[in-house]
Amino acid sequence: MLKSIKYIHISIFLSFFLSTTFSFSQKPVLTAKEAIFKMVKSIHELERLKYSLKIIERGKKGFNHYESSVKLNRKPRKIYLYIKGIELLWVDGWNNNKAYVKPNSFPYVNLSLDPLGSLMRQDQHHTLNEMGVDYFASIIEYIALKNMDHFDTYFKFEGEERVNNRPCYKIIIDNKDFAYENYTVGDKESITSIARKLHISEYMILEVNPKLNDYFHILKKGQVLKVPNAYAKHVTLYIDQLYFLPISIKILDDKGLFEQYDYHFLQVNPKIEDAEFTKTYKDYKF
Fold first, then answer.
1. What is the pTM of this model?
2. C-alpha separations of 72 from 47, 133, 134, 278 in Å
3. Residue 28's pLDDT band (cuts 50, 70, 90)
């Protein structure tokens, strides 16, 4: 009898020990809300980035694919890009705020180009102004704050995955109310100003309004446009577990894939010499 009681005590002790040990060894359960606002905080505190970026964007003739190597300083804003032999340098307040570009084709001379101009925009969704992680963070933060009372309806935490060779948290943003509505153009508004005001994509405005030629189409006050009521219908977001920065963003609308951005070889706050944001830097060929 005493022996049986002893075994029972041992069994109870082992069960308690194993259960407490297991619970202490587990990571704290993260919610979608915590992950999103930790990401926003990390982006606001960010100083510099180095990364390789892979882009897929829906264009007029199918999907466009781009790859670039990026050096970015947030404040003051400085950007160096390398894209298959093309080099680009943009520094806030320098070169009349134009991008300094070395093309790898005709005319084979360095050019100073307006980042918002037609030559640099062409069929692309975004400009140099949206380069980095700030722009999409502002979109996601806007969605989160707008839907705080129904956060769990829109945002879902879907565990952990390894993406772009990094351990990540997976967040799904599902906007079941995604639709198009009428917007009446106000005084001196442009496609871009409307997009920024409503936190939506200007490229999507072009897509659903075929009569608009391009980003520079002059709008008239009182003109009625179709606009989406949100930036996306569905977003799959992967947040790096170490840095709490977005490592992959996949955006869908009612037609399917709209755009996708994948960050590889991410370096957060690396040492970048001031000279690396000048056209005379030793490793560049401007």
1. 0.88
2. 9, 10, 11, 13
3. low
